[in-house]
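ok trying this again, last paste got cut off
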Amino acid sequence: MRPPPPAELSREDMWEIILDLRATVSRLEEKISLLEKENQALKEELRDSKRAKAPFSKGTRKPNPKPPGRKPGQGNFTHRTAPTSTPDDEVREINVTIEADQRQCPQCQTPLDITIETATTEDTPPAPRRLITCFKVEVGKCPHCNFQTRAKHPELGPAQNGATAHTVGPHVMAQALDLHYGLGLPLRKVPQVILDLTGISLTQSALTQRACHLCDPGGLLEPTYQTLRTEVINSPVLHTDDTGWRIDAVLAFVMGFFTDKTAYYQIRYQHRCQEVEEVISRDHQGAVVTDRGSTYRAKCFDNIAMQRCLSHLLKNIKKVEEQKTGKAKAFATALKEQLKAANDLWKGYRAKELSRDEYRRRGGEIKETLDYLLRDRQLTDVDNQRLLNGIGLEHDKGRLLLFLEEPEVPPTNNHAERQLRPAVIARKVSQCSKNDRGANTYATLKSIVQTFKLRSINAVKGLTKLLKGETFKEVIEC
């Protein structure tokens, strides 16, 4: 409907229209002011985002509550001890003597008492002497039927001819593999480090191809990888955990299975019970320590002795406890106290602060209390009911306090978390694996290197022996 012409409006109608227009202008000015403020905030946020920050920075800095340096109670101060030489080391002895005119006291001219002190310096030359082995290989060829044969040597690879005739030795290759797969150095930086340390040139593609050939089915390291899998399958206590991975930008999972002395990794596109059963079968005889992952609730694992990680359970309980007050908080508090008491009891037993009988007696008391707390009932609070149903189900299956019956089984999955951490870091600083072959290579070499570390074996020396053809059993028995 069109408004009437101004000539037909009265004075009162004109004033009403003017007041409405003023109110509209005022509202528009307020909106413009708000938009200007939002625009300024977005500009500041964009400017801050372009500034250089540390990886995964939140933009805030937490104050350091502890001063730098060694804290009291962290052990006694010890000086660096003199190195122990081995037959492979080059040892030089240099006598440092006092000048003849300085063997007397400058004040009273009394001869000084001379004693001998020992000081050492460990170092390597900037470019160690290379060992170049030149093979003069006889190749026989029939002039009539083109039959060809090639002389063999234990140190000469079967495919070391033509374009691959000149390669690096096992020790240098072991150093390069440990730098990348063991220490997490980016692959593109490994050749430069090897060149600086040894003076030997190595390309990134040569390292990648050699690593894949070694880990392929039938490769030199594949039997060791299968040996580690067998050791994990037959272990009495097995820790397991997983983390995300990428294969050609497709979501995948790194699944880790660990014992006190063995690490075994496998990378799969899915993390279902079918993938877990490749290592943990339905008739697995040992105990399995894991987090609260739903995969391990599958029926195929019902007959396996399993310990759920108390740290994960306590974290879930703490979230509920912080949200509640009064009587609604009592259930979570009581449950947390009993689980912490059970965990402290296990630590005391492992520290040999109490006997096995005392451990079982006090553990039985905690179990009776938890039996009562986790009895089947209906709670008024929804969050407490969810805790009761979830933790109570694990308790009914014997997966909450297994460590009180078998002290060899730890109550937490901390061991698996620590062993999986290098894979988590590698995922954050790299593009993971380009294809299935690269994923298998990473899993194989990571398993071998991490196993050497768990057994306190030098990874470079261990890999060198494997590359020379020794078996895993021969390496660990040396």
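PB: full thing came through this time. The chain has a mean pLDDT of 85.
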